Amino acid sequence: MSESDLSALRERAARGDNDAIGQLIELAAEREDFDELRRLADGGSKDAEDQLVELAAEKEDFEELRRLASAGNTDAADILAELNE
Q: What is the pTM (predicted TM-score) of this model?
């Protein structure tokens, strides 16, 4: 996907286009793009937050999991507890 296509997708997502948000989440997960997933999650996308937790768990990114857990994400907290056992 070209940068201009990605920009257009981001613009659609910013206007609340759920299909565009879903596509961005999928692309970000494939690229392991934590920043994009964080931006989408911070914008209110629960799906992006879920994907961010999953990716952080796969990468054993304790810092990201702690950040998510401290923000109230119980899945991240549970994963942290499991990884620390």
A: 0.88
